[in-house]
Amino acid sequence: MEHCDYQKLNGKRRALKIIIGFTAAVMVLVTILFFVSEQTFQFVVCSILMAVLISYLVIIAWIERKLKRTTVYGHILDEDHDGSITLERICQISGYPVSKVKKDIKWSVDQGLLRGFDYENNRLIMDDLKEVICATCGALNLVREDGSGKCKNCGSYLKRG
Q1: Hey, which end of the chain has fewer CB within 10 Å, N or C?
Q2: Rounded CA separation 132/111 (Å)
Q3: pLDDT tens digits for range 28-77
């Protein structure tokens, strides 16, 4: 099970690129008006429009960075085989601070981009865990569906599916 909706994520990124292109075209038109305007009123209107468009581009860049980090988190969650990963481990792998990871994961879940896990005690627990009995020692283990792992008791290789 993929824990990141990559199709939705890529759709949002494509939409942002279109918005950026449209905004850039509007900025070019505003710049042309800015330089050809001789009246003070047109100059002020062009200045305000330019400030709004620049602010808009800053917000778009912020969202794009969040979407890139969501892709990183999705890959980390999809590669985790034992079905449980701490925020600290996600931070070590991604290189982002805990505060940023917490905010990003909450935002990504709210946007419907990350799914399939529960959050408790700074740990992400995957929803697709199944019980597997170790063939070597008989210990009960939780392993991701169609995943693998090691027995918590004896260290033997476990395979689900």
Answers
A1: C
A2: 33
A3: 888 887 777 777 777 777 788 888 888 988 999 999 999 999 999 988 88
Closest CA to 13 of 71, 55, 85: 71
How far from chain centre, in Å, is Cα 93? 14
Q: How far apart are CA 74 and CA 89, in angstroms?
A: 14
Put residue 138 in one of left, alpha, beta given phi > 0 → left and psi -120 to 50 → alpha. left
Report the alpha-carbon distance of residue 55 to residue 49 in Å, rounded: 10
What's the whole-number mean pLDDT along residues 117-130?
76
Asked whether the beta carbons of 34 and 50 are under 8 A apart, the reply is: yes
Residues 6 or more apart whose CB falls under 8 angstroms from that of 84 comprise 123, 124, 125, 126, 142
